Amino acid sequence: MAKGANAFRSISEAADEVGAPQHVLRFWETKFPFVTPVKRAGGRRFYRPQDIAVLKGVRRLLHDEGLTIKGVLKLHAENGIGRVTGSEGVAPAPTAAAMPSSDALDLARLRDRLDAARTRLLAALDA
To answer: What strand order describes the sheet that includes 9-10?
Structure first.
């Protein structure tokens, strides 16, 4: 029975999907701070779908594009994780400036109300 697209993968399943041996995935964890699988009791690693995407990106950059480890780290530092995973073309979430003015005003009012509530809560804690 195949796992769902959002299911966590064991290290052996992740290695098969990425196309790299298990020991290489463990090594990449030590070299790339953005490779962060979930670790359960006993130190077992479980890889989320986003972890698999990052690992596939690292493999592509190292093996297919010929970058070094330092090159991948530099690319990540300069361009973010989107460049590593190859998803840099994905449109970012809309900003307040890109929203219609009524939506931006509603958000500004909501933010003001939340700030006021936070101030009241902090004052109550200090009392």
So the answer is: 9-10, 45-47, 38-39
